[in-house]
Write a structure and sequence with these properties.
Two copies of one chain form a homodimer.
Chain A (H helix, E strand, L loop, with lengths): L3 H7 L27 H9 L3 H5 L2 H15 L3 E3 L6 H6 L3 E4 L3 E4 L17 H17 L5 E7 L1 H10 L7 H9 L1 H24 L4 E6 L7 H22 L5 E5 L6 H8 L3 E3 L6 H9 L3 E6 L1 H6 L1 H15 L4 E5 L9 H13 L2
Parallel strand pairs in A: 1-4, 4-5, 5-6, 6-7, 7-8, 8-9
Antiparallel strand pairs in A: 2-3
Helix pairs in contact in A: 4-6, 6-9, 7-8, 7-9, 8-9, 9-10, 14-15
Chain lengths: 350, 350
């Protein structure tokens, strides 16, 4: 039996999610395990495909640990990909080098016959084995974050067959046949609950739900395709694991952030780079934890401009339940020494 | 001497920009002259390149008028492209079929030597001739909207050499060398003032500034690269033409819309599809005109779902200074009969 209360006390990352301010703020960075690290590139080169790396617990655990060893972040995030879910369901996913993901698109309800929750066992088991190894290997003070893509965002890739700038395939399907699209969202919602449950049982201390394309939806569709399925996931996970914080990241939806929080009841939110600090302050003052929101491109540039922005963010969020993070993933061009500089600056900021 | 006061009385489109509610609301649609119309495709096929069409007053005026003839919109928008400005400045722009724009990128201050305001005369004159013809050809009750891209958004294409999902080339340049990037923004700001001045002198009744990539910037950069240059354009145009409304469209920046309005002093804003109606209401209640924000993909689907959303938007914005529009441009797959249905519905909505 896990002692979640003792975990909360040991891991400073978790305290903002109990509405507590921590000084200096906990810090981790989205995509902190990635191509900007030479030791990651070495493992990646040995791993075969990108998904092979996700499905090989030894290697996935190793790349998750690399940034913890280098920078001592307060949280590690499971190395995986949001497209593990459609891949495990039976819609095969390939990653062409430099091209992003490719799937055989599912453009209408007829294509859903390809998918089955019962398909997911083996692949989810491999991811959960990674989580298990990490929970044993990580320092006691380091939290382990599990994650999934939100149903809406995963559905956009499944419908388009790749990344897109406007998510037109999924948005169009949802307008043409909302009942059919609801079936896809329901499959993804139920599968995500199973997947996250497995990750928590294997040792994840917190969960983040990435909704990268939440910002492309009109208000009613945001309520139906973003808020409702996320709320269902939150309810199901909280019922079984009331002490595990759930973080939402509805990217590009800063104007709807309070609506999202009210509707989903997440314990905290990640904020993207464009979110004004005043919005982050307002939310944190309600007791919800806020993560964010340094521009990853400023981390590439570094120097005084980086220091100043880090200070501004930390000063603005001081005394509030806050976790320092980027507003989007680290880019491959990032000099690792700038990451070290960032972490030192955040920790001096108290 | 133009009698701007009489124009205001004749053209219902202009009244919301004097803080007046109009019932039914004026309606026009972004990219209303475009590939969804067979008569547009015919002219386009005869015109050579896309920019040739923009630079041929006969044809550019013809495609601007086509949707007015079909649907009787309350405003026509000059058929042109935001990349006319870099093209005229000397950074040659090509449009490859189905690939979007291509430019030889300018990635640092050294590349600015290629650009000169004195280069722009001939090409701007062709655009202004189109405006002149339109102002003579349009019905007296139809307003003519001129436009330009905002300096920030135009700069993103100039730095990247094409469209991009993250505007990384411009954002990175702006972090690495803010003083150099400021020079590019200054060139674009001054050129835009000259360009818009020419359009108004030729007969444009209102101006829209399209900032499609405003949503990718962090707060401080939004202030420097979006708000400041737009404010400078607004001041310069208003000083010469105090009766000509200036509309801003900072796409993807709904959470910063009030900051944008306060900082730029535009007469009205366009709101993208993801902007909550409550945000639009709040702004319109301050007396600023608001345009928006039907999802263009719902216009493709049509039917009852379209009718219901049109009604909801019109009912929510009733009694406020409001112009019905899309939240983004019409897509080529749009059935023209759905546009007719939309216009009839808006006009019945009072």
């Amino acid at each position: 039996m896990r002692d979640l209360k003792s975990e909360l006390l040991d891991k400073r990352f978790l305290q903002p999610f109990a509405s507590k301010a921590v000084a200096p703020p906990p810090v981790w960075l989205m995509r902190q395990a990635g191509r900007y690290l030479p030791e990651y590139r070495q493992v990646r080169a040995e791993a075969g495909s990108f998904l092979d790396l996700c499905y090989t617990p030894d290697l996935a655990a190793e790349v998750t640990l690399q940034p913890i060893r280098r920078f001592g972040f307060d949280a590690a995030i499971l190395f995986s990909d949001i497209l593990v879910v459609p891949d495990a369901l039976g819609q095969s996913v390939r990653f062409a080098e430099g091209e992003g993901p490719r799937l055989d698109p599912i453009k209408s309800v007829a294509g859903l016959a390809r998918l089955a929750l019962s398909n997911t066992n083996d692949k989810f088991a491999l991811v959960c084995e990674t989580v298990q190894r990490l929970s044993e290997a990580l320092p006691r003070e380091t939290a382990l974050i599990g994650f999934c893509g939100a149903p809406w965002t995963v559905a956009t890739y499944m419908a388009e067959g790749k990344g897109s700038s406007d998510q037109a395939a999924a948005r169009g399907w949802a307008y043409r046949d909302p009942a059919g699209f609801q079936q896809l969202i329901d499959i993804l919602t139920e599968t995500s609950i199973v997947y996250l449950t497995g990750q928590i049982e294997a040792g994840a201390n917190a969960i983040q739900i990435f909704d990268s394309w939440a910002g492309s939806l009109a208000e009613n569709e945001f309520a139906r395709w973003v808020i409702a399925p996320t709320a269902r996931i939150v309810r199901a996970i909280r019922e079984r694991f009331p002490a595990v914080p759930i973080i939402g990241f509805p990217r590009g939806a800063a104007a709807s952030l309070q609506t999202y929080i009210d509707g989903t009841d997440v314990d905290g939110v990640s904020c993207d780079t464009s979110c004004p600090l005043s919005v982050m302050q307002t939310i944190a003052r309600t007791g919800k934890a806020v993560q964010g929101n340094l521009d990853p491109l400023l981390l590439v540039t570094g120097g005084d401009a980086l220091d100043q922005r880090v200070d501004t963010i930390c000063e603005t969020m001081a005394g509030l339940p806050f976790v320092f993070n980027l507003g989007h993933g680290i880019v491959p061009e990032t000099p690792p020494e700038n990451v070290a500089r960032l972490v030192a600056r955040v920790r001096k900021a108290s």
